[in-house]
Write a structure and sequence with these properties.
six-stranded parallel beta sheet; single chain; four-stranded parallel beta sheet; Rossmann fold; 13 helices; 15% strand; binds D-glutamic acid; alpha/beta
Length: 284
């Protein structure tokens, strides 16, 4: 009789197209300090925001397979674009074939479960990448939890390239921030809550705050996703018991690691040291 291999134990995987997921990882580490985390940024292929459905799905699946090879029992897609375009197919089709005991979660569902609590006017604005907006994931998911909430979306395709190129404090950033805020408030002037529905956007928070009308709240996702993960681990001891807990953090990038380390520190809030990872045919 052949022995049954026990499911792997390892760190929780956290994935983004580049640096943005580090804003989520920061909150995860704050709320779950004893857990081990393994971060991967696909910086070589970032940004994902204006790529096709197929490209985002293929890249995200390659990343998920890479995490499973590292022994991660649970992967968080800390990227709205990947959550919008790839998560459902991976959960419903691929997981069963590649690692049925493992789990992959995203950032859209936890956000839409609570977003209605933050608005008084019942009118919320979603600032996101082109891909997230086109997927309609936010309006569809919000309607399940807060059916009377009026949702207005605005795609901000220049924001991620500005941030990835360290231009978030430049005059160019002022121009593009104002442009998209003007656009969303002219579509729906009574919005009182703006969701930063891209994990890169917290880096533009100071600029955004400069141009929003008084009384409008800005919501970012880090704390929401972290609280939701705490709850998930409490409800799923079979997964929690496979997540190792020594407080270790590892960082990986698909691009040059020195460039990644220099830039990533802004997002994570403290210095990091990454390793290079290869995705695709050469990895799995
Ligand atoms: N940070 C990602 C998100 O939350 C994606 C940015 C991009 O690669 O365009 O959508």
């Amino acid at each position: 009789m052949s022995a049954v291999t026990p499911p792997a134990k390892g760190p929780i995987g956290v994935f983004d197209s580049g640096y943005g997921g580090l804003t989520i990882l920061r909150s995860l580490v704050e709320q779950l300090p004893s857990y081990d985390f393994c971060y991967l940024g696909d910086s070589a292929r970032s940004p994902y925001g204006n790529r096709s459905f197929d490209a985002v799905y293929t890249y995200t699946l390659e990343a998920v397979q890479w995490f499973f090879k590292q022994g991660c029992p649970l992967v968080i897609l800390a990227c709205n674009t990947a959550s919008a375009k790839a998560l459902r197919t991976i959960q419903q089709k691929d997981l069963q074939k590649i690692a049925p005991a493992n789990r992959v979660l995203g950032v859209i569902r936890p956000t839409t479960e609570v977003i209605g609590q933050y608005s008084q006017t019942g009118k919320v604005g979603i600032l996101a990448t082109e891909g997230t907006v086109q997927s309609q994931s936010y309006p569809i998911e919000i309607a399940k939890f807060f059916p009377s909430l009026e949702v207005t979306q605005e795609a901000c395709p220049m924001w991620v390239p500005l941030i990835e190129n360290n231009e978030q404090d430049s005059e160019g950033a002022d121009y593009f921030v104002q442009k998209h805020l003007n656009a969303i408030f002219s579509k729906s002037p009574q919005i009182d809550l703006l969701l930063l529905a891209c994990t890169h956007y917290p880096l533009l928070r100071t600029k955004i705050e400069k141009y929003i009308p008084a009384g409008v709240k800005l919501l970012s996702q880090g704390d929401i996703v972290a609280s939701s993960l705490v709850d998930y681990l409490n409800r799923h001891p079979e997964i929690a018991s496979r997540c190792t807990r020594q407080g270790n953090l590892q960082f990986h990038t698909t691009d040059n690691r020195l460039d990644f380390d220099r830039h990533a520190a802004h997002f994570f809030g403290s210095p990091i040291s990454s390793k290079e990872a290869q995705l695709g045919d050469s990895c799995c």
